[in-house]
Amino acid sequence: xxxxxxxxxxxxxxxxxxxxxxxxxxxxxxxxxxxxxxxxxxxxxxxxxxxxxxxxxxxxxxxxxxxxxxxxxxxxxxxxxxxxxxxxxxxxxxxxxxxxxxxxxxxxxxxxxxxxxxxxxxxxxxxxxxxxxxxxxxxxxxxxxxxxxxxxxxxxxxxxxxxxxxxxxxxxxxxxxxxxxxxxxxxxxxxxxxxxxxxxxxxxxxxxxxxxxxxxxxxxxxxxxxxxxxxxxxxxxxxxxxxxxx
Length: 246
What we know:
10 helices; 39% helix
């Protein structure tokens, strides 16, 4: 008997020291229906057992060695052979029918990019921060790029499990390799040149580890500070305010 028909969506997981989170994301991927066309984990130089865990689970592991989600995503998409790609963070869980939703969303030619609606959870459910993240998807471009908002720009972040056509990603040059954070929002601007951005009203659950570490007020202040600096042209050096939390 043959297995279930695979989707046209490949998953790319940029990872760095995610040994604690990987068993959860591997179990989540195994529950997807339809299953992904492929799963590529791009490691940025982990010092824990991330690579061994991913390989033991049968994931295609690329030891890129250079830290930074932008360059890791670029490498993962370059390695992929799937026509559609979803970027999945190791601390994010997709709904079982996520890949069917990706295919349905990108079936519309006018759509260049999509993402799900994240709910921050873990130590507790962060309703306030999750609502603010939902709201800034809309108010961010209204305030900062209103001419693009009317053309379909929405601001998505990595926690949205962003997805796109591989050909479109390559067409716009992928992520800016010099960016260490905010590469996701920058990608929204790049892909908005060729189509609209869609926030899919289905929840993905993502870790609240930054909010748990910093507290809600500090976390949202850091998010805002990084976002405003990016909006006014400062793309480098933002990671000094945004350290890794594992």
